[in-house]
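Listing S7. Sequence submitted for prediction.
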Amino acid sequence: MDFNIFRKKDENVFPLPERLSTDKEDLFCYGFDASSMQGAPSAIVKPVSTDEVSKVVAYANKQRTPVVPRGAGTGMTGGSVPLNDAIILSLDGMNRILDIDDRNMIAVVEPGVINGYLQEKLEGKGLFYPPDPASMNFCTLGGNVAENAGGPRAIKYGVTRDYVLGLEVVLPDGRVMMTGGKTYKNVVGYDLTRLIVGSEGTLCVVTKIFLKILPMPEETVTLLCTYSRLDEAASAITKITSSGIIPRVLEFMDEESVRAVENYKNFGLPLDAEAMLLVEVDGSHAAAMQDAEKIAKICTSQNGQVSIAEDMFAQQRLWEARRAISPALYRIKPTKINEDIVVPRGRIPEMLQSLRAISERYNLKIVNFGHAGDGNIHVNVMTDKNDREEYERAGKAVEDIFKATLKLEGTISGEHGVGLTKKQFLGMELSETSIEMMKAVKNIFDPNGIMNPGKIFQAG
């Protein structure tokens, strides 16, 4: 399709010519996401209201033109990378917090609101929105909904779907639909809200989000536990999660991730540690201190060295180090294949042993970190895509990683979704019947196949 005709001021040709760009610079900038995969959109449209989204999507549906909803492009699996000369529907202009209802503990937001911005506004009112992906300072809540984003606090508080009470969405034919709403309970009909959360923009466009919020905990205590042996850290994880204490955060970093962060910026982390745990507990002052003391004893019983962040600045510095891992890894190799496997928490030691064996088998550096508290390990296979032989080895290593994960009753994606990068592996985890049912749901919502085509499912 020739998108230059969209510039005509004619509602019968294109409903929002003033919101459209076909400039080469814009097309390039909106053609990739954090997966580093690149696509070639034909146009960028930036609506600022539900009505404008409806008009664009309805027009695209009539023209059988693909539409790719997009937030900040922080996804790791190519979910917002356009295929087939698609229209990029950029929702970053729909960025208003519409309501913070502290009486009913609900926030209503548009999809372009930055996660961290909502966190900041809530904290000023003594409130709390738990889902906190590593990219929280620039990822959008609409993108979080599309991917069902998690984060370090998921062990205690859950992931995005646990806080989405309702959605306003635009269907592929332009109709506007509400699912759920402002009540904490709702069992009228099928739960379409939870179906849409995590659907990666393949069913509809989210234009309004109703979120459950919580009171800010009175106290948060942060502990750093270092280990000279990886197996001791893994054992400590198992003992903490089976102790009856539910920490707010239980993060894991292996030796390579610690070294990468220290080479990136001097945070003062110990370079002689084979593994580190970052643990937080929260609640009332007395309860948080009591839980911190119990966890410290567990960690030291497994030969860990424990220190407690003395103030908010020390806590922030530890989190700055944790969130620096991903960018720091690019100093090891120009390409990292980032997978986010999950195994039952008690099987983390076995998974780490398997990862070490795979690293040795393929002669590749594999860096591991992530949310050990819920079994979610970010596995980074370090390679160079310009080195064809090494990159092929890396691809084989990824397949072995997934096989080892499934053997331990895990899943190949905990919070990054499927997108483009994992769709070839979908059949490793899901049965043919499950995939057929998912495709049937997709077809009911989107019979013309315009919504983010090519994602999740293989062609055919």
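Caption to Listing S7: primary sequence and predicted structure tokens for the chain studied. The CA atoms of residues 454 and 460 lie 10 Å apart. Confidence is low (pLDDT under 50) at residues 5-11.
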